[in-house]
## 1
Amino acid sequence: MRLNIKPALRAGMVALVLWLPLAAIAGEAVPVAQDPVLEQRMIALSEDLRCLVCQNESLAGSRADLAQDLRQEIREQMRAGKSDKEVVSYLTQRYGDFVLYKPPLKPLTWLLWFGPFALLIGAAGGFYFYLKRRGTRLASETLSAEEKQRVEALLGSNGNES
Amino acid sequence: MKRFMIPLGIFIVLVIFLGIGLKLDPREVPSPLIGKPAPAFSLALLSDPARQLSPAELRGKVWLFNVWASWCASCRQEHDVLLDLSKKGIVPIYGMDYKDQPADAQAVLNSYGNPYTETVVDRDGRAGINYGVYGVPETYLIDKNGIIRMKHTGPVTPEVLERKILPLVKELQQ
Amino acid sequence: MIPELGHFSLILALLLALVQGVLPLVGAARNNAAWMAVARPAARAQFLFVAIAFGALAYSFLSGDFSVVNVTRNSHSRLPEIYRLTATWGSHEGSMLLWTFILGLWTVAVTLFSRHLPEDMLARVVGVMGLVSFGFLLFMLATSNPFLRMPMAMDGSDLNPLLQDPGMVVHPPILYMGYVGFSVAFAFAITALLSGKLDASWARWSRPWTTAAWSFLTIGIMMGSWWAYYELGWGGWWFWDPVENASLMPWLVGTALIHSLAVTEKRGSFKAWTVFLAIGAFSLSLLGTFLVRSGVLSSVHSFATDPTRGLFILIFLAVVIGGSLLLFAMRASQVGLGGRFALISRESFLLVNNILLLTATGSVLLGTLYPLFLDALGLGKISVGPPYFNSVFVPLVTPLIFLAGIGPLARWKQVNVPELANRLKWGFGASVVAALLLPFTQGDWQPLVSLGCLLSLWIAVTVAISVRARLRSSSGWSANFYGMNLAHLGVAVTVIGVTMVSSYQTERNMRMAVGDTVTLQGYTFRFGGVEDIVGPNYKGSRGTLEVSRNGKPVSTMYPEKRIYVASGMPFTESAIDYGLTRDLYTALGESLDGGAWSVRLFHKPFVVWIWIGAVLMALGGFMAITDRRYRASRKQGRAAA
């Protein structure tokens, strides 16, 4: 007899748990996702993916139908044990690099990825040499320019505020 | 002097690109599947849910694959163009009813005519994802070896048909 | 009748803008005083007619005149009155009219506060602005007439629900005040190139105008970011969307311009560079208008677009910017060098500031347009989104903010390095220690949080050192000095907000039935159910969430889901409980089976600091404008005249 009670109790508890969300009994709310950890991983990945039908929204933020389908697809693939990389390559095989908000590094995107730092180094170098040349040019200019400066500074306001 | 020309030079290049950009559609996504085999599926037919169709059965012929739905307003725009094409019998059109109620789709075909040799039903849109469908209607052209040769997103207009689709169909049929 | 009056006024304004653009410029070139004198009255009359047109459009919207195409497309008979006003500039045509209206406003302001300006300079400045205005008026009348009539009147298709928000009443005008305000700096720059007169007084005259425009733009961007936060869904405050980038680029160049103007005014250096930045800031404003209006890029904010309009703006852009840059290339080498300075000096620091800001601008431009470049060359489609911008922007801005701490304490001409290091060593040490410890108060230690705190504290400490030194010295009140420090402090505040919310935001997506509770970061949310609501032009559902902390009630939040009658589109109206150290942000999701709803809950620490910081920056800017120096020079000018 004792053996029979346990399954019955368990069944009762399962019934209770299943029934709980249906009834208006106060309790701890449960996450919408069955697996919150996986959901977190899915959201994190889909934030860097572009929703194709939307104007310019991430897959994570979009309410479009296709975005929901693709989120579901990502969820299922993750559940099946696929890595983030595999999921991403699944999507790029079908939709191309357009879905990636972070463009992959390849010859076509070298300018994009290295451009800003090349620009910084170029600008810094250019200005360094310009300043050096400027110094020598200023030194060779006549004194009157210097004097004019001083007069201007005196006519203007006092020296050391910005 | 030369130094001060640099901004102007950069700006001219920029304007040229922006000018070209005006003619481009930023939302059209080219399919990476072109030149690749048409993804396999095995889906029930709209006309007879007991029977299934897969692209492998269509090997040896050139066919158009048109993704549509009864809820899609712009699909109605291309409907007559497709009907016309099917009457001419140049190329068979297979349809895929995407994320739709089969009854609604059947109703559309009943009242507006049926351009499709067969229509398969993709209820949950999974086959659609494999084809990279992102906005119905979409039309694919598949050759005798089952390779996708062209994709058109948006309604097929007579112009698109004449300029883009039919010449390629003729080439592939040879 | 009223719309026709508006249309007619626009045509008159176009003719007046042509007069305003041509006569004063020719007069200044030929030294003809009578022609130069046309500038003031022409500018004011032009503005008057643009204002009449603007009023006519606003009237058409407010009175619901659905025989006007623009009203039909962007309004609805049940649209509340306040949003009818918003709808006046919610459309493409209306926003162009607002652009021109504000351009007129700035021009009139220049004519009013210009008694100290030499007559030929004023004529040129007003003339250049007249030409810009002419371009926009021509554009409107040729491609985007806001007063076109419908063949028959019917009810409208409603204003985009995203724009049906009180914030949208003030956001576009203020943003445009900033965008368009850079036209004054631009006009001054062109004037300098035309006349060849580019001295300290030139910099002093254009400085307050630039600062004013920059301050408006700061507020405008801040409001846009805040609007996106509460309106676009999940509480993001910056999406690196093309439209946002379009406003950020002129802001970055404008920031560089403010700093380089300081050098030009004080030391007479960087003249050509300053002129270039003034052209750049306004050019990027125009480019932004093109990007938003032409539809070459897809954006969450891009509403109606049209390629023929795009072509017109592109040609206009090519003429205005191309012409200016050509003029710059021809004249810039004659500008002169200015004062001497050592490699380590305040001048150098400001130069590095400019290089970093310009590189940041270049990166944003590159990232925004790269997909277009590849597509135009037929090399495929890619997307460039937040991951790219964040990874490029942060390394550029970090040294910039660090410099903002040192720069104001550095001397002009040459820095005494040991002395400066000595002044800063304690502050730096304290900032480092505090920055390493601070993250522990919020949870786990993260290197980026410490970096953010360090930058922020560093600015706060250096501002304090600076202000203390100022108070101890005998020099009196300087609005410019305190304004600058306030703006820098604003940067520190924004950095804290960005750091905290990016690292410590928590989020839950819960299934909630009536009476269910969720606890998030010590706050307990109790779901009180959902009721149906009916708005003036929408229907929807409103959820109730009672929030308590340690048993004490904190607030009651009402997130909504709305369906607008005309468009049938669902929209989420989030509910936010604002706080200085945290925002609670809730949004109603889908209705689930069994009477439950999915509810999204966010805890966002220090998020309001992002916008408070921006407000401080703008206030600092407005404060700096009141500096005595700008008024004193006016008196000098009058005495000379």
## 2
Amino acid sequence: METKLYTLIIYSENFAGILNQITAVFTRRQVNIESLNVCASSTPGVHKYTITCFCTEEMVVTLCKQMEKKIDVLQAHYFTDEEIFIMEACLLKISTEGLLQNPAASKAVRRHGARIVEVNPTFSIVEKKGLTEDILSLFEALNEMGIVRQFVRSGRIAVTRDCIEHLDQYLEQREMNK
Amino acid sequence: MAEKVTGAEALMLSLKNEGVTTIFGYPGGSIMPTYDALYDYTRGEKKSFEHVLVRHEQAATHAAEGFARVSGKVGVTLVTSGPGVTNTLTGVADAMMDSTPIVVIAGQVGTAVLGSDAFQEVDLVSVAQPITKWTYQIRRAEDVAWAVSRAFYIARSGRPGPVVLDFTKNAQTDLVEYKPANVDFIRSYVPSPEPKEEAIKAAAELINSAKKPMALVGQGVELGNAQEELKAFLEKADIPAGRTMLGLSALPSNHKLNMGMLGMHGSYSVNIKEQEADVIIAVGMRFSDRVTGNLSKYAKQAKIIHLDIDASEIDKNVKTTVAVVGDCKKTLPAITALLKEADHTEWKESFQPLRQQEIDRVITPATKPTSGPLLMGEVAHAVAKATNSESILVTDVGQNQLMSVRYYKFHKPRSIATSGGMGTMGYGLPAAMGATYGAPDRTVCCFMGDGGLQMMIQEFGTIMEYQIPVKMILLNNNYLGNVRQWQDMFFNHKRSFTPMVNPDFGKVAEAYNIPHRIVKDRAELQDAIQEMLNTKGAFFLEAVIKPDANVEPMTAPGRAVDEMQLNVEC
């Protein structure tokens, strides 16, 4: 079965210790988490987890079921890249001297639609938002010039292409069945 | 304004509110305020509970499991922090594997010192989360009523399971105005999903079209109290059934559609016929590897209908054709209503020659030998017969378990407590103690081996103190028998640390004032069993059995179920 990158969007109650329970599902099934973002969702009292991992569809279905089984997890869904809007961010610390000596460096920054947000005599900071491949492409371009001092990528965030928020619908239904 | 009580007393009132009658426990530092309150609630005008002081915390969870398994109620364990609660965790994991509703309440150090490696502090929430249905740390007395009510609701609803409450010392001592809580709704938790009509229809259509249908009955039927609904379902469409080890009393042994037990040491005909059935209907069972054998060769010819209350069980091991998610108390009658009456006589009769082979080559030699040492099967068979198959069977783990579940018969529901998924040695004796509290009107027979007994032999003390009427049957072969069998079969007879030098068990029982008898001769067996059953209260019967007998039949690990061997080759 084909392995690909899936993005899981999970909602839970805002209780301590749920992140542990969610990551434990991956550990138990021997799936590595590629990126993870946790934040409060637009629904009060609900936390949202955006997690990416490489696995088969069969495995991602199992992961979602095992997560939904946790008492305080509301919903767990999985998506391929085509099914969602994706955003990631990165920060690159580069040598200012290297930047000045390499005209190609500022070209690469502009070509990738990145921004230089800090410049001082020692280092400069480049910020880039976008798709994973765009961020990696910028990193590779600057790294080839040997001027990258630090590089960090955020976890992926994503929204679905649906017009409705499934979680709100689910919560409404649950309240009705109360 | 209501009078304020301590958090510990709020716990007492909350447990009373949940209808708790029996608590299995062991006191210690961090749970002392609760034991102080418990003292008042076990006597005098406030008397609400019986507390059973076990001799090891692991026994408290197994006792709670035994209580829950036979009564259908939630078993309760009360222990202290640190080693007290880590000792319970084997039982907690066991309850998770076998869907047994228990609530473990453990003391914890005060919130002010949490995380500081205080005396007897353990990070219980992190440790317990993966092996519980829910774990919660009670940090304020105000949360006691809510947390206890939520714990019981979660433990008993849907697919039952264990809940652990980590009760900090300050939450036990702080004052609170107690108001009962009755949690019966959690928005993130759907214990019993509403069955989908199209799934019900699809299942019925598939069963109606089947020529060789076969049902696999699991413990879910007992947990859902759907024994009658199961019978109606099987009888209408004339479906032969195999039962899992945990589901053995979900369908009476003498029911005409009961074909035997599933699994590695189950019935020969059932294992062979699973590979021939055209439609398999699994009801409240999880296709454990002990049932399916080699999964890649399991029932490939069959269309699979899986009825389960837990959606995560669907397609976990075996891919289903139709999944019916919901409570089998509802889904079974809904499907039955759409079934056509059928007659599968020819298919059912095809089990018989295989059954006969098993009778001739395995069952008769195991249960009715005429010479040689006593055998495990004949002791189990004789005890079942002497109790008219009405007693509750509790087993330890190993050969004693496999042989007693094979040769016991079950006529009443909720008549078996055994450690299935975890295979926990030491489970038997404390679980049997708990079972006597869960079903006080029934005889409880506990089969153990010499290995498992010694993992919990200290519980003789509990049995003595509370005069617990457990009928203990030790099948003593002076071996860790099941491992020895595997060593003989798969490790070239290298008996690596399986022979055991054992004490005089009768003298141990004697020290605890437990009536006992040792039986070596076949001629004495019936009389010894009668003495055990006629003796009021506990009895310890030691049967000295053939040292190196094997459990048969057997599907070797990695083999397909139809590669089951009637007689094992060592």
